[in-house]
């Protein structure tokens, strides 16, 4: 959008963006409803309360990290370190609480702080040396994945008995604690994305980074904060996963980063940056979770499940590209 555009032109441009976003979200809602109807009639136990609560736990594993990755992709970056980061965090909290004598609460706090630090490191590499975020987070992916397996000899590390871990891995008033955390963080990140200067800066950086710099936005600060946030959210997910499983495992959460990125993209966040919403990502998380759960209940071979997920990701990217092109054409018209 140029500075010479009139107010009506600006309104038409914004209207095109909102129309594209609404179309994507309405389509996702319809797809989820169709999935519920189909799976409810074909997959035994799909609509049972236990299965629905299980899906909430699975959704939280993807969703908590997805809120941070949504902002990262809106800013025109990418973070592929989520899976190993979650696994390493589960190992770190288990080691700290059971073998290093830190105690439960300090072990959790150290794990969360470590998550923010390794995320900030990726952001610093991107901001200071202009290392592509894919490469920076690929390095973190490899390092944390290797450390998690090395520190445990690829064996689970059992958590000590603790009331805190029982609550984190259990439920509050019948609702999984991880799902409650996911919803609370969803509300927080929705507010941050749409109602704070930081959130507006993220959109500006993704839309046009050079213009954002000229407008006085500190790109380095934004990028470090973005990746520190995804590191922190991965650590939160790791702590919750360890509490749920009763142990830390360096091989846990394998491939989680792909589910997270798929949920964000399916939710309508533009891979090129500058466009996306937390509501869209929430719907993407639900869609991915329902698909995964349905495939398991239908007895689909695990290898074929990966094929189906791969097809879904490709189709989602194609739809995303089409919507982005139409939105761009609306802006220019």
From TrEMBL:
Which CDD domains is this protein grouped with?
A: TM_PBP1_transp_AraH_like
Membrane topology category: Multi-pass membrane protein
Q: Which GO terms describe its molecular function?
A: transmembrane transporter activity
TM ranges are 26-49, 61-94, 100-121, 133-151, 171-193, 224-245, 251-272, 279-300, 306-323
Q: Which UniProt keywords apply?
A: Cell inner membrane, Cell membrane, Membrane, Transmembrane, Transmembrane helix, Transport
**GO cellular component assignments:** plasma membrane
- Where's it mainly located? membrane
* Cell compartments where the protein resides: Cell membrane
Return the protein name.
Monosaccharide ABC transporter membrane protein, CUT2 family (TC 3.A.1.2.-)
């Amino acid at each position: 959008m140029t500075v010479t555009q009139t107010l009506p032109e600006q309104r038409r441009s914004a209207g095109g963006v909102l129309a594209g976003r609404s179309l994507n979200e309405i389509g996702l809602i319809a797809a989820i409803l169709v999935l519920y109807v189909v799976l409810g009639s074909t997959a035994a136990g799909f609509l049972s309360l236990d299965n629905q609560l299980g899906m909430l736990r699975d959704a939280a594993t993807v969703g908590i990290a997805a809120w941070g990755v949504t902002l990262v992709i809106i800013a025109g970056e990418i973070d592929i370190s989520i899976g190993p980061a979650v696994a390493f965090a589960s190992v770190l909290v288990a080691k700290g609480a059971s073998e290093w004598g830190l105690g439960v609460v300090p072990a959790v706090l150290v794990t969360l702080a470590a998550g923010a630090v390794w995320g900030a490191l990726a952001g610093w590499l991107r901001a200071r040396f202009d290392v592509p975020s894919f490469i920076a987070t690929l390095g973190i992916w490899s390092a944390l994945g290797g450390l998690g397996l090395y520190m445990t000899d690829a064996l689970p590390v059992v958590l000590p008995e603790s009331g805190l871990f029982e609550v984190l891995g259990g439920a509050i008033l019948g609702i999984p604690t991880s799902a409650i955390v996911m919803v609370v963080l969803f509300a927080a990140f929705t507010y941050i994305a749409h109602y704070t200067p930081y959130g507006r800066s993220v959109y500006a950086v993704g839309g046009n980074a050079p213009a954002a710099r000229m407008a006085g936005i500190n790109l380095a600060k934004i990028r470090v904060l973005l990746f520190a946030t995804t590191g922190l959210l991965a650590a939160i997910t790791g702590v919750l996963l360890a509490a749920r499983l009763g142990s830390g495992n360096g091989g846990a959460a394998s491939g989680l980063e792909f589910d997270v990125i798929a949920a964000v993209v399916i939710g309508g966040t533009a891979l090129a940056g500058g466009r996306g919403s937390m509501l869209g990502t929430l719907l993407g998380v639900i869609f991915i979770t329902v698909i995964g759960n349905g495939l398991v209940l239908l007895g689909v071979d695990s290898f074929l499940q990966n094929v189906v997920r791969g097809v879904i990701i490709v189709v989602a990217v194609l739809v995303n590209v089409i919507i982005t092109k139409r939105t761009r054409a609306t802006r220019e018209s």
